[in-house]
Amino acid sequence: MNTVMAWGGSQFKRKTAEMVVQYCIDRLMPRMKTLDICIQLSTDMDNADGYCLAVNPREFVIEIDSRLKGDDFITALTHEMVHVKQYARGETKDVNQFTKSWKGEEYIAMYSTVDEYMALPWEKEAYKLQEVLCDEYKSLKLKELKN
User: Fold this and answer.
1) DSSP letters of 84-141?
2) Predicted TM-score of the model (pTM)
3) Residues with Cβ < 8 Å from 36, sequence gap 6 or more?
4) Given CA atoms 60, 96, 85, 47 in this order, what sign does their dihedral have?
5) Contact at 8 Å (CB) between 12 and 24?
6) What sign does the CA torsion over 31, 36, 41, 46 have?
7) I want to staple 6 with a disulfide (CB 3.0 to 4.6 A). Which of 17, 45, 56, 71 is the partner?
């Protein structure tokens, strides 16, 4: 059974983070049942809205800026969950400190501009899917409220 646990931030943000992450697991990796995902809600993030650390192909730490609100908070989570999917399915792997493998092809994972960052194939996919997942999650929650 998958384990998802959030800490830091408010109780509302922790619960929201856990629900969003569980939705992404169900949507992106429905057959995986051995994921362990820890979500750290942090206030000391200056350079990014979130990070994903793959401890191994089934254990992850996601750090999210707890100061984010509304769609920005959900979108940061969905973005990082796309990275979880990429690692869990073996689509991306850390080759070394400076190199990643994406679907069998190696890339230098360093960048100095936003354009270079956005050109990385794993980031292209994460940015593409983050909005789709955010919209789907919000639609699902809206349907639940109406019922």
Assistant:
1) HHHHHTTSEEE-SSSEEEETTEEEE---SSHHHHHHSHHHHHHHHHHHHHHHHHHHHH
2) 0.95
3) 2, 3, 58, 59, 60
4) positive
5) no
6) negative
7) 17
Strands of the sheet with 59-65, listed across from one edge: 3-7, 36-42, 59-65, 50-56
Question: Within 13 Å and on the Cβ side, how many CA atoms surround 84?
Answer: 32
pLDDT (tens, 9 = 90+) of the chain, 147 residues, equals 999 999 999 999 999 999 999 999 999 999 999 999 999 999 998 889 999 999 999 999 999 999 999 999 999 999 999 999 999 999 999 999 999 999 999 999 999 999 999 999 999 999 999 999 999 999 998 888 887
As given in the structure block, the two tokens for residue 137 are 């999650």
CA angle 96, 85, 106 (to 5 degrees): 30
Two structure tokens written together for 32: 């995986």
Alpha-carbon span 89 to 113, nearest angstrom: 28
